[in-house]
Amino acid sequence: MRINLRVLSSAAAIAITCAVSAAAYFYKSRITEINEVMVFCKLQYNAYNYFDKLLSFIDAATKSVNVCMPGIHNPAIQGRLVQLIKKKNIKARIIIDRSGYNKSTEFFIKELIDAGAEIKCEKNDAVFTMQHKFCLIDDRILMTGTLNWGNDRSCDHWNYVYITSKLLLVDPVRKEFYRMWEEFSSDLLRKPYSEYTTNDSDAETVEIVNPEENTDESGDFESVVRVPTIDNTELTPNIDALIF
């Protein structure tokens, strides 16, 4: 069986071209991969450069910005989000803690909503706080760390922000955001804070008392919500009694 040398050489050339293209694509993807840490400290150490860099990542959004923060009233960041929504038609979804909506933050929240941002918070839980601090740019870039967007002087404090585009790190956070987005509610943000009272939500106010202290003058403990205390309870099991 004779082998056409021209066909063989063409096949070899195609294989080499594909291998080179694949290697170039892999190299390019590694070069463009984002994986860095920005450390914020006092302003005399030029923290503004890092803050401007953080804003540049937000500005680079082309489709969406998904934010999960205890609060959001940093004027620079809030203003940048408003601009993105209005000028680039970016879809902005924001999850905040219940405490992030108050008299001092109402203006910032209202301006974001008026611009077109969707904002949600945990409706039924007034005890446990939402302490996540992350932002997803186009569901592709993750910014997370200690920097709280609910602080107008956050760039003057000791904080760090880790920025990455590694799918292994981005994907779990992205899934958690959308899970929270489906679970949380926007009802608390549909009216002015001045009209908002704890009775408007389904949250139950819990008073934690020591069972040995009677805070009810009538002596009736039934009217007080009690949280059991651990007294003479063996928290660590007896290993000798365990059967493996």
From TrEMBL:
Keyword Heme: no
Family, as annotated: Belongs to the phospholipase D family. MitoPLD/Zucchini subfamily.
One matching Pfam family: PLDc_2
InterPro entries: PLD-like_dom, PLD_domain
Keywords annotated in UniProt: Hydrolase, Lipid degradation, Lipid metabolism
GO molecular function, one term: RNA endonuclease activity producing 5'-phosphomonoesters, hydrolytic mechanism
Protein's GO biological process: lipid catabolic process; piRNA processing
Protein name: Mitochondrial cardiolipin hydrolase
Cellular compartments per GO CC: mitochondrion
Signal peptide residues on this chain, from the entry's feature table: none
Domain Phospholipase D-like: 54-181
